[in-house]
């Protein structure tokens, strides 16, 4: 249950190509279970994460997401 003071944030990470189903599932299992992550979506060549910034910082989650995508062999776009 969300507290009234919790602030939801969104990170969007663009990739050069659509992510495969297995890699999408791996990201959802790893990042989706992190404390503060509310939802994760991997469609249309993007990774979109909604999270509670009182539990995890945008900088930390962004770094983890980008590192995870690159470790799976995908290239990021700006």
- The end-to-end span amounts to 34 Å
Biggest sheet architecture: 4 strands, antiparallel
- From the coordinates shown, what is the CATH architecture? 2-Layer Sandwich
**Share in β-strands:** 25-35%
The sequence of SSEs as H and E is: EHEEHE
Q: Helical residue percent?
A: 25-40%
Class by SSE composition: alpha+beta
Uncertain runs: none
Number of domains: 1
What attributes characterize this protein structure?
single chain, 78 residues, alpha+beta, Alpha-Beta Plaits, four-stranded antiparallel β-sheet, 32% helix, globular
Please explain how this structure is put together.
32% of the residues lie in helices and 31% in strands. The longest helix is centred in the last third of the chain and has 14 residues. The protein has a four-stranded antiparallel beta sheet, with helices on one face. The chain has a single domain, classed as Alpha-Beta Plaits (2-Layer Sandwich). The radius of gyration is 12 Å and the shape is globular. It starts with 7 loop residues before the first strand and ends with a strand. The mean pLDDT is 89. The chain contains two helices and four strands, in the order E-H-E-E-H-E. By secondary structure, the chain is an alpha+beta fold.
């Amino acid at each position: 249950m969300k507290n009234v003071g919790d602030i939801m944030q969104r990170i969007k990470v663009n990739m050069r190509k659509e992510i495969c189903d297995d890699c999408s599932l791996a990201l959802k299992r790893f990042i989706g279970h992190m404390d503060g992550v509310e939802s994760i979506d991997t469609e249309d060549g993007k990774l979109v994460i909604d999270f509670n910034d009182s539990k995890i910082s945008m900088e930390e989650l962004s770094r983890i997401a980008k590192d995870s995508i690159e470790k799976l062999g995908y290239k990021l776009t700006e």
